[in-house]
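ARCHIVE CARD
CATEGORY: sequence design from structure
SOURCE FIELD: tokenized fold
FIELD CONTENT:
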């Protein structure tokens, strides 16, 4: 038997467009950097010399950063585990579990990395399908195979749908589900009401929450995220973490931003929400487009020939968006609110032009 997994034949390496002259609306990044390059240099310079030197390994887990993030979430410091973005958190949880012969239930559609990290040759994945309005129905999540799954992975607000799961429904799930419940809250800062479950980690020992500084905090390049859970789970996952995954510079800058840029982060979030609601309204006026209400920093709309639209935006307009063929819904485009309103106007004009050309009567030959 080969050591190499047969599934590799069906996989493609992740492609990234590293040309920053494109309008980048494909990765749900923030348009606002909370630190200027000069400030970054100054903050790093001001840090004490030993920890600022690059020939030494960074802090394993910066106590200071953990404390700052815990204060932001209003949870105890021992309830957060720093990871290299929440991507490492997803992979760490998956790798720390004995998944052979086990069942993992995952929302569908949801963030691709869940299935990517948790599936494996001896693991069964069951999908918890959203309905045609991209909502989670109670009957779907309370299916016996979902409730008996060893792990249930939820995401709220969900990517790529933008939907927020009902708080009552999540409480009912947590009261019933015996296995591990993983709840990804990467976009929770974009929800004005308190819908987060971080304050529930004491009540539910089987709850692990994923958070990130890549979205609202605008630190995608630094790769900083956290697992938030009760002390037993944090201790358990910590044992499986490869040391030193987050660079010293990332830890220092993330700590600074948490302590000194909270009002700016909140202002950036408010402006993104305003722009998102406006883009959703404008999109809804374009013929052939159906918009799904989003609670995150992106919009999602259904459109016929979505792949064609993604390609045209890329090649004719230098705009990057993400195409998803979604179960029960069909072709969709996800578009991040990652640029200012002026640029978003150009994006909307490009989408309207593509739709108009599609609907125009073809010329007689
Ligand atoms: C739902 C969700 N979780 C996690 C991530 C990973 O983010 P990061 O690794 O940058 O923290 C993303 C990124 O888009 C996401 O959408």
């Amino acid at each position: 038997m080969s050591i190499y997994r047969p599934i590799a034949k069906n996989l493609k390496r992740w492609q990234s467009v590293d040309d920053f002259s494109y309008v980048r609306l494909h990765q749900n990044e923030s348009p606002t950097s909370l630190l200027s390059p000069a400030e970054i240099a100054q903050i790093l310079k001001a840090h004490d010399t030993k920890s600022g030197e690059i020939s030494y390994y960074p802090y394993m887990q910066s106590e200071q950063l953990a404390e700052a993030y815990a204060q932001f979430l209003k949870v105890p410091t021992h309830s957060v585990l720093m990871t290299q973005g929440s991507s490492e958190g997803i992979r760490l949880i998956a790798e720390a579990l004995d998944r052979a012969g086990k069942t993992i239930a995952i929302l569908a559609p949801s963030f691709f990395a869940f299935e990517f990290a948790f599936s494996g040759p001896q693991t069964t994945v069951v999908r918890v399908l959203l309905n045609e309005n991209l909502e989670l129905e109670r009957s779907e999540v309370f299916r016996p195979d979902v409730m008996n799954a060893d792990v249930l992975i939820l995401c709220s607000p969900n990517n790529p749908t933008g939907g927020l799961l009902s708080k009552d429904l999540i409480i009912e799930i947590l009261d019933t589900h015996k296995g591990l419940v993983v709840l990804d809250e990467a976009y929770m800062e974009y929800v004005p009401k308190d819908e987060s479950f971080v304050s529930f980690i004491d009540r539910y020992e089987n709850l692990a929450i994923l958070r990130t500084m890549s979205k609202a905090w605008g630190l995608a390049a630094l790769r900083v995220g956290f697992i938030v859970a009760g002390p037993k789970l944090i201790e358990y996952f910590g044992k499986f973490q490869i040391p030193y995954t987050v660079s010293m510079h990332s830890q220092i800058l993330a700590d600074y931003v948490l302590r000194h840029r909270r009002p700016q982060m909140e202002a950036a979030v408010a402006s993104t929400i305003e722009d998102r609601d406006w883009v959703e309204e404008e999109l809804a006026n374009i013929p052939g487009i159906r918009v799904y209400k989003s609670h995150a920093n992106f919009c999602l709309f259904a459109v016929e020939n979505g792949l064609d639209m993604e390609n045209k935006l890329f090649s004719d307009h230098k705009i990057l968006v993400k195409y998803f063929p979604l179960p029960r819904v069909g072709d969709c485009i996800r578009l991040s609110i990652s640029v200012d309103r002026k640029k978003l106007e150009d994006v909307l004009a490009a989408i309207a032009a593509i739709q108009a050309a599609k609907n125009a009567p073809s010329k007689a030959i």
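CARD ANNOTATION: The pocket of pyridoxal-5'-phosphate is lined by residues 28, 85-87, 111, 155, 159, 184, 186, 212, 214, 220, 225 (CB under 6 Å). The domain at 6-33+263-354 is CATH 3.90.1150.10 (Aspartate Aminotransferase, domain 1).
SHELF: design records, drawer C
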